[in-house]
Amino acid sequence: MKQYISELQTMFGTWEEDFKTTIEKNNPNLEEDFNDILQALPPEIITEYLSWIIDIGNTPLISDNIDTIMRCASEYTGYQKVWIVKTINLLKNIQDPNIDNSIANNLIPIIKGPYTRGNPWVIINFYNNCKDIGNSRDIIEENYGEILNTIFSHNEYLSNNPAVLDRIKDLIYKIAEQENVTLSDIEDAGSGQYSDCMKIGTTILKFGKNRILEDLPVHRRILQPKLRINIPQNYNEQIDQGTLKPDDLIAIECQDEVDTKWDENMPDNQKNEFLYSIYKDLRNSGFIWTDIKPENVGRLLKPNIINYTVTDSNGEAVQAQTSLPVGEFVIFDTDRIYEKDKLPEFKNVGLLHSPSYEQFEERYNNEQKELASR
Fold first, then answer.
1. How far apart are the first and last CA of the chain?
2. Model pLDDT for residues 289-320, shown as the tens digit of each residue
3. Is 73 exposed, middle or buried (0-12, 13-18, 19+ CB in 10 A)?
4. How many other C-beta atoms can be found within 10 angstroms of the C-beta atom of residue 344?
5. 3-class secondary-structure state, position 54
6. If DSSP codes are grouped into helix, strand and coil, which group holds residue 239?
7. Most buried in the list 107, 132, 187, 311, measured by CB within 10 Å?
8. From CA 324, how far away is CA 219, in angstroms rounded?
9. pTM for the whole thing?
């Protein structure tokens, strides 16, 4: 290896001031040195190196060496997700069939490699960014089972219980079929303190670890789930027996998509009143909502249908149904809603309820006192 390339391996600094200057002053033969330079550079510099190659009119070099570039991406052991995304975006804009095919053929090695670390957010956003390159959609569809294996790879319980993992995968396939969307169109829907979320058509699938789903109160202001289970369902017994670690507990929840951008450009005082109206509605029904944030509330895109049981005049239990129409507001992040008499003691108040909770509770109690005094 040439001396200046060895120097690149030990250098620190910026592309323009350090790496580019070193390369240019050595008047490299890029036909011979392209790959050696590529593999000597730190990951965060690679995109700028390739961009420079394009600027000086040597795009064919990238096409000729694209497999090496993609191998660097799939084998990189650090956590520089930004440079990989930036590099893919640069490469796909070249619109070269050879480059596009190499990106597509390396999608699964990159997803399963150290770059994603099994992070659902990274994996889903990565394949969404690449799905229209070459035949990437076909490759994603054909290998979606492997993609899901990678997403759930850090869960020891699922690793030891492949039949349970297969049930979760079947659920995802079934939702996609019902929603009439391809697997490659499944999107990231964000993440919270306890869950990662997938958007499958108009269904939001939440899956969280080390989280126990309690019984959900039945109320029109609470988005009613299509599915809400703990896996395994006999988690208490397995934890007591030592056959399940709490970290391996998985909670699965399916909800209809709601409009989460309802509060954009809305004044804070108006936003606050919307939140209080929801709090008051719940409070009047004997429930207390403590995680009061605009990002936990959505505007309905479909009616919120609530099924419940009532007792008829003969003392028999019968099923009843009510709904909240499209356009109304509901809580879709339902972790902190309690029956009034079952409100837990908060050992760490800041983590378990928002500042608005105490303000709203005080306002509600004052309103009730005023009503009682009339």
1. 90
2. 999 999 999 999 999 998 877 777 777 778 77
3. buried
4. 9
5. helix
6. helix
7. 107
8. 10
9. 0.82
